[in-house]
Design brief:
With about 150 residues, the chain is an all-alpha fold. Helix content is about 80%, strand content about 0%.
């Protein structure tokens, strides 16, 4: 009889442990879901590349010299400051931000092209076209040539 009395208490402990595990698992799934959703909405700026990283990308794509790369970093840093002020001034208005960003991007691209050789400029145009196509498909662009 003693053996029969032990089984229900073990069974009850296992049920309590199972409920605790379910709560932990549910909490983990909830946190994972929230993290995934915030990442999908662009939270945390994970897709933004630094001016240095953007210039390094161009350096490998266009075979830039170190001098060209350093000058492009300066151009990208200036663009980043202006872009941040545009974002702040737009105050969440996407249309206003887009309207202000287009001339900035065109100016940046023109400044970069002025530093390039004719072959590099052709490759840069192709790079920008590829970036634009990627943005149109919703794949992001990594901030490459804009």
């Amino acid at each position: 009889m003693l053996v029969l009395n032990l089984y229900p208490s073990i069974f009850i402990k296992n049920i309590k442990n199972c409920n605790a595990m379910r709560k932990i698992l549910l909490t983990c799934c909830l946190l994972l879901g929230i993290a995934t959703l915030s990442r999908a909405q662009g939270g945390g700026g994970g897709m933004r590349m630094s001016p240095e990283d953007r210039a390094k990308t161009l350096q490998t794509q266009l075979k830039l010299t170190d001098d060209q790369t350093a000058k492009i970093v300066v151009i990208y840093k200036a663009q980043a400051v202006k872009r941040d002020s545009i974002r702040t001034a737009a105050n969440g208005d996407r249309d206003a931000m887009r309207a202000a960003m287009m001339p900035l991007m065109q100016s940046t691209n023109a400044q970069i092209k002025a530093l390039l050789t004719p072959d590099q400029a052709t490759a840069y145009d192709k790079y920008l076209a590829d970036q634009h196509a990627r943005m149109q498909q919703g794949g992001g662009g990594g901030g490459g040539g804009n």
